[in-house]
UniProtKB/TrEMBL annotation:
<protein>
    <submittedName>
        <fullName>PBS lyase HEAT domain protein repeat-containing protein</fullName>
    </submittedName>
</protein>
<dbReference type="InterPro" id="IPR016024">
    <property type="entry name" value="ARM-type_fold"/>
</dbReference>
<dbReference type="InterPro" id="IPR011989">
    <property type="entry name" value="ARM-like"/>
</dbReference>
<keyword id="KW-0456">Lyase</keyword>
<dbReference type="GO" id="GO:0016829">
    <property type="term" value="F:lyase activity"/>
</dbReference>
<dbReference type="Pfam" id="PF13646">
    <property type="entry name" value="HEAT_2"/>
</dbReference>
């Protein structure tokens, strides 16, 4: 079982794969914190697992955390894409 301290360590180490695995932990608070940590990191690998969690997790609070994190990830990816469109090609 993953602890909340483990989640903090994974977030600080930018361990996206570990945080994605923690989305399936038996503890809803661990799942929620893993989701929010993934949202804060805004790594595109988290998009699909967060999308699935926001509709399938048995806990309403974990689904809400996943929905929030999903919005953060999608928003950040859109910012990055928009930034590339504005600046054009770099030489």
């Amino acid at each position: 079982m993953t602890t909340l301290d483990d989640i903090d360590t994974m977030r600080d180490a930018r361990d996206v794969d570990g945080l994605i695995r923690a989305l399936k932990d038996e503890d809803e608070f661990v799942r929620s914190q893993a989701a929010l940590s993934l949202g804060a990191l805004a790594d595109q690998r988290a998009r699909e697992p967060l999308d699935r969690m926001r509709s399938e997790d048995p806990s309403p609070s974990a689904r809400e955390a996943a929905a929030t994190a999903y919005r953060w990830v999608v928003g950040r990816l859109e910012e990055v894409e928009a930034g590339h469109g504005i600046t054009g090609r770099r030489t």
